[in-house]
Design goal:
8 helices, alpha+beta, Nucleotide Exchange Factor Grpe, Chain A, domain 2, elongated, 212 residues, single chain
Length: 212
Amino acid sequence: MNEAKQTPEENKDPAEHAADTPASETGEEAPSIAEKGETDFGAEVDPRLEEQQAEITGLKDKLLRAMAEVENMRRRAEKEKEDAHNYAITKFARDVLAVSDNLQRAIQSIPAEARANEDVKAVVTGVEMTEAELLSTLEKHKITKISPEGKKFDPNLHQAMFEIENPSVEPGTVMQVVQHGYLIADRLLRPAMVGVAKGGQKKSDVSVDEQA
């Protein structure tokens, strides 16, 4: 008997034939990358890499904080140096102010009629020039006089010694300076001792009924 010849395809095992057949033809879905265990595109991140990245971020933060602290220390050092330069003579300046006060008292103690005398006039001129030169020298060291007369009382710069009844000005206006105050740079060296206008009603504030 003649046996029918079988083609190579017919000789294949059914299981092998199914394996060679594309999934689209068999109706079965192809296994996903994750199912095959392939991680080319969806590979998990190495925990050690995450730890290293976190450590780098932490080091960067520490570096920035350290740089900021160094900058703050530099600024504080510069401020302290400037303050030392500006205020180192504070105690000496207060002592010198006593000399200026005495010169002013000497000038104020000379009566007007005595100034008509040529000899007295020459002495007064000399004392005034000495005071002016002293004030100029103080200003070179950033020590300036506070002249508050006619200005509003400022508790940060002035010390009220007494009140003066004067309804023609605003209450709290400095009417008299007993002793001048001084600033050194931007700080108070000595407050000005002053007399302040007492609170009262201005004439312009009096109503018609009160005048009647």
